[in-house]
Amino acid sequence: MMIRMADEDGFSGLEAAIVLIAFVVVAAVFSFVILGSGFSSADKAKEITMDAGRSPTAVMVMGTVVGQANDLGVCLRRVVFSCGLNGEGISASGIRYTLMTNEKIYEVPASDVTLSWVSERETNAFLSEGEIVRVELELIPAAIVSGTEFMLTIAPPRGVPVNIRCRVPETLVANKYYEVGFGG
After folding, report:
1. Where do the TM regions start and end (predicted)?
2. By percentage, how much of the chain surpasses pLDDT 70?
3. Which pTM value belongs to this model?
4. 76 near 67, Cβ under 8 Å?
5. Same domain for 23 and 105?
6. How far is residue 101's CA from residue 5's CA, in Å, rounded to a whole number?
């Protein structure tokens, strides 16, 4: 004999199973997200721990930044300076050079960068601590005219970029060299 209740609304076994499965799926997705973020943060912590022993790389400009006027004496043709390094060695060709004025930002393409070693301990393309490289940047496309102030940013592939404040003299004579900045 079956007992009847006044209100026969309720969960059947099938409905209860569907709700249970939904809870299990939501819990599985939630745990996957939590575990994934845990693994990600563990990997980041490992990376930070491994990098802790490295000293930061800093490029230094040795002395002055010299600019050469173009054939017409209107703008700079090139700038020349010497760089050294503090910290772990880096690929000299990986250093990026940017000039910023009030009007524009000019990233010097690798084809307009000429490197020549002043002092080299090893015959490779790496700039290591104690070595000095002379850098020549062709600036014709940048059109840095007389009287312009600009910021020369030297950014190594990893490490700390350095900014050098430069100013082109008010009057330029064709093909003459001028001190436009000082690195220290």
Report:
1. 16-36
2. 88
3. 0.67
4. yes
5. no
6. 85
